[in-house]
Amino acid sequence: MVSKPHGGRLVRKLSSEKTKERILDEKDEYPKVQIREGIAVDLENIAHGVYSPLEGFLREEEFQSVLDTMRLPNDLPWSIPIVLDVSEKDLNFSVDDTILLFYKDIPIAEMHVDDIYKYNKKEFAQKVFKTTDINHPGVAKVMNMGDYLIGGEIYLLNELPNPFEKYTLRPIETRILFKERKFETIVAFQTRNVPHLGHEYLQKSALTFVDGLFINPVLGKKKKGDYKDEVILKAYETLFKHYYPKDSAVLATVRYEMRYAGPREAVHHAIMRKNFGCTHFIVGRDHAGVGNYYGPYEAQEIFKNFPDLGITPMFFKEFFYCKKCKGIVNERICPHPMEDREYFSGTKIRNMIVNGEIPPEYFMRKEVYETIMSFENPFVDG
Ligand code: ADP
Questions:
Q1: Are 238 and 367 in contact (CB under 8 A)?
Q2: What is the pLDDT of residue 226?
Q3: Shortest-distance atom of ligand 1 to CA 193
Q4: Which of 12, 165, 177, 230 stands 20 to 30 A from 60 (CA)?
Q5: Candidates 59, 170, 175, 192; catalytic one
Q6: For the chain, how long is the longest CA-to-CA vector?
Q7: Structural domains of the chain sorted by starting position, each given as residue range(s) with its CATH number in brackets
Q8: How far apart, in whole angstroms, are the C-alpha atoms of residue 27 and residue 7?
Q9: pLDDT, tens digit, 9 for 90 and up, residues 69-89
Q10: How many Cα atoms within 13 Å fall on the side-chain side of residue 241?
């Protein structure tokens, strides 16, 4: 049985063709707000039910409740505020207006304005990211946001152009796919990286206990030096071709901008995958972390607060290669000292690639390495 959507019902907020036509005909009559890519991606996720039960951006009461309790006012777990910010100079509308949200020159959505409110950025940062240090990329983003938040329901008018349409599945599609495959239990894997052997062991260890594995890389805005989206996809395609069971592993992408909120974001990632129909969710070491802001297993501990989440987290200790065991293991199963261990580090592997070294086979599959090397420049430029 695939998981029930969070809150019980899969949200679909897509305008009918008729409404869309009417609104687009009259588009000059509505106040307009220009949105950035991250907001457009959130809109897409609201509209397709990835963020069920949200039907729009958080109103003040919901926002405060999410900050303070990691729950919506009706007590449903919700850990990351999904908000639309505007600056004072763009506030050319009032409560109860219908506005149009534009990404570049595309009208992406209409929104009914229920609420316009000020918020405290430091409080936002401290509660969500557990720090107000602007070197944290999530905090930096909050500090650059407009001073007002707009809450209210949305309807999608146009899909965002998607270069990876072929690889994208919506919750309504994965739910059908999982049923067709007759999966009773499906574990989801969240990732923003090309796969190393640690990832593979994590996924396969989890798959040992369930019917299906859903690998769901998040695509979207990246930091300088990260792998490009197409490289992550091709690397996974290669890995699937050579090393994954075809009847039980599924690969599909979702667009999403990482918050780097560690523990809170792990809960959010789990809720997203529950909406895709998954019953289990992998949380390894320092999930969605950045720098040293979170403890290595803090993103696992937070799940204690959510016995009612409706998706079961699967926790794993850090995988590493042990020269004595001659295999990929973790501290629960390996008795050998640190000197025998080679830890996976995305940065270390990337530096090897940049310096023309081939990563050892216990770090990365040869085929994956070759796929990365088939790109002229596999990394995001500044
Ligand atoms: P993110 O957690 O930021 O999405 P990754 O794509 O690297 O970054 O990680 C995806 C998942 O794999 C997370 O749950 C993370 O904790 C886990 N993970 C990554 N490397 C390891 C490892 N060596 N051992 C255990 N878990 C790991």
A1: yes
A2: 85
A3: 6
A4: 12
A5: 192
A6: 71
A7: 17-156 (3.10.400.10), 169-257+317-373 (3.40.50.620)
A8: 33
A9: 999 999 999 999 999 999 999
A10: 11
